[in-house]
Amino acid sequence: MSRILVDGHGGDHAPGIVVEALAAIHAEYADAANKPTLGIVGQTEILLPALQQAGIADVVQIVPASETIGMSESPAMALRRKKDSSIHVGARQVRDGEWDALVSAGNTGALMAISKFILKTIPGVDRPAIASMLPAEGKSGKTLLLDAGANVDSSSEHLTQFAIMGSCYMEAAEGIQSPRVGVLNIGSEDIKGTDVVKMASASISDLDLNFIGNVEGTDLFLDNVDVVVCDGFVGNVALKTMEGVAHFIIANLKREFTGSLSARLGMLLAQNALRKLKTRIDPSEYNGAPLLGLNGIVVKSHGSADALGFSRSIQVAHREVESNLKSRIVESMNQWMEQ
Fold first, then answer.
1. What is the dihedral of CA 94, 96, 98, 102, to 10 degrees?
2. Does one domain contain both 13 and 91?
3. Up-side HSE of residue 278: CA atoms within 13 Å toward CB?
């Protein structure tokens, strides 16, 4: 049984949506054999009334923390000066084995810096990577992109590490056998791309992975690849662009279908299909980015996530624990270092 601790003060809408998400997870797993144990870390005087109002005060444990970290605070300052913040306390709880995973919608830089400082990295991993799930065609309906913003510049060795961890994640947490791994590039040809990308492709091709070579941005949503590796600068720009396009499509569909009487009638006839499309491309449905490479499970939620989005992040953490992901990454990294 997994033990999931959530940051009660992280994100734009905490603690309200965090508590809503906990209530939703509690209800969803009420009769499940693998029901997770839930906890929330933060200021008791704020969190307890919210839990009581949601009717889950008796099933969600509060882990006290006296300080909070703002979304715009410097990660370095937060790391040094706020040792009793909800992120600090949560990471220590995971390190000490009191909880299996920490989920936070808080300051990304602070979460990464504090988690890396307290939990350290798995042997063989120099830098943790933010792994973000994208909607795609095919049986799995998903593509994993990493790094999505933790490291703005990465060496070929870092990209190789990302490939190993991403492959482990898709196999362990998503159940995809022999996931297809590609390196994001400006073309599929071996001669294209930066020296770092070329060296990474050569290095990954020597591993015992299902490496398919270079992939382009157009491949991200197709049934061509399961794991896409890139540095954090490229990955974050790509991810934010995708989210913007998704919102653009949804907003324009609403505008066009409410522009005239015939359009509104058309919307009524197509509402089921439109609802499915919205769900398919809604970023909330794919919320929850694991920080792969840490010696412990930490999942980052979007700061602006709603209750649905945050609940998806809790589910990501739950799957990571249930699939014993950390141990599988450790094993794979050990095999790579022995080569």
1. -10
2. yes
3. 11
The two tokens of residue 64 are 């006290």
Q: Distance of alpha carbon 240 from its chain centroid, rounded?
A: 14
Confidence of residue 280 (pLDDT cuts 50, 70, 90): low
**What are the pLDDT digits (tens) for 39-69?**
999 999 999 999 999 999 999 999 999 999 9
Contact 325/313 with Cβ under 8 angstroms? no
Strands 297-300 and 101-104: parallel
Question: What global pTM score does this model have?
Answer: 0.89
CATH number of the CATH domain containing 239 = 3.40.718.10
- In the chain, pLDDT over 70 holds for what percent of residues? 93
For 80, the domain range is 1-123+293-324
Same domain, 269 and 142: yes
Q: What are phi and psi of 29, to 5 degrees?
A: -100, 15
